[in-house]
Structure to design on (125 residues):
């Protein structure tokens, strides 16, 4: 849903759902090879801790100029009709749908009780 005074960054596409954005991050994080040292419970939370540190450090990086932002955005030429994530030109398979499929077909599926509305402390993958 559109918030008053906001606009979609790519108005030619539908807004990506919360679920799609979260699963995109999960897919990306599991492509990293990091040292497991901060969290003892599981790989997922180790990766979350690493991602949080990276995101926090990105706040101090200077703004991207409009030309750079547009160059990065132009790489997104299509949208997955199933999950709403933006895809690159050369993408043959949606990484978000592949991640959701892998989670759903592993046995005990985190992800079944997923809400596309708002993230909350009770959100599961």
């Amino acid at each position: 849903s559109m918030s008053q005074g906001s606009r979609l960054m790519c108005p030619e596409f539908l807004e990506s759902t919360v679920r799609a954005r979260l699963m995109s991050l999960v897919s990306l994080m599991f492509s990293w090879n990091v040292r497991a040292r901060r969290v003892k419970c599981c790989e997922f939370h180790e990766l979350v801790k690493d991602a949080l540190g990276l995101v926090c450090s990105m706040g101090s990086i200077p703004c991207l100029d409009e030309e750079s932002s547009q160059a990065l955005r132009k790489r997104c030429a299509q949208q997955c009709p199933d999950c709403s994530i933006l895809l690159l030109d050369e993408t043959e398979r949606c990484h978000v749908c592949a991640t959701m499929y892998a989670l759903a077909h592993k046995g005990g599926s985190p992800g079944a009780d997923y809400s596309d509305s708002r993230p909350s402390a009770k959100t599961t993958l």
Remarks:
- Residues 108-122 have pLDDT under 50 and may be disordered.
- The radius of gyration is 16 Å.
